[in-house]
Write a structure and sequence with these properties.
Blueprint (H helix, E strand, L loop, with lengths): L2 H15 L5 H11 L7 H11 L5 H13 L3 E4 L4 E4 L10 E5 L5 E4 L2 H13 L9 E5 L2 H9 L1
Parallel strand pairs: 3-5
Antiparallel strand pairs: 1-2, 3-4
Helix pairs in contact: 1-2, 2-3, 2-4, 3-4
Subcellular location: Cytoplasm
Keywords: Cytoplasm, DNA-binding, Iron, Metal-binding, Repressor, Transcription, Transcription regulation, Zinc
Pfam families: FUR
Length: 149
């Protein structure tokens, strides 16, 4: 889906939710939606400074907090990075596969994994308030490249 279309969808959702999609939030949304995979806040800040020369780290972190709250991005905790979510207009379970070699991050939506995880939490008397399931390994491309060496 094109970035302008994603931006249009996000703008509509913000209006429906009664939240402000400020120019800085829009800029960070546009920047992160153009990345393939996860990106750090400081890499986003470098790009944002091209659009907003006075941008500082708190500027990006506030925008990212907003985007996280609206479901437009996911935080990849183990990388301290952020991943654009193309399915932001629906609540969905999420699991991440992270390649240790090239940094590729694949977002999965497996309801069975989510239900099993929630069931185990319940059996242990635990209430989940925030969930992040991340698995590290090697993607197919890196496995293939490694075999050729």
């Amino acid at each position: 889906m094109s970035i302008p279309h994603q931006l249009e969808r996000a703008d509509l959702l913000c209006k429906q939710r009664g939240v402000r999609f400020t120019p800085t939030r829009r800029n960070v949304f546009t920047l992160i939606s153009g990345y393939q995979g996860a990106v750090s806040a400081y890499d986003l800040l470098d790009k944002l400074k091209e659009l907003e020369p006075n941008a500082k780290p708190p500027t990006v972190y506030r925008a990212l907090d907003f985007l996280l709250a609206q479901g437009f991005v996911h935080k990849v905790e183990s990388l301290n990075a952020f991943l654009f979510c193309e399915h932001f207009d629906e609540h969905h379970p999420m699991q991440l596969l992270i390649c240790n070699q090239c940094g590729l991050v694949v977002e999965l939506h497996d309801e069975a994994i989510n239900q099993a995880f929630e069931q185990q939490a319940k059996l242990n008397g635990f209430v989940i308030t925030n969930q992040s399931i991340e698995a590290h390994g090697q993607c197919r491309q890196c496995q293939t490249t490694e075999r050729q060496c």
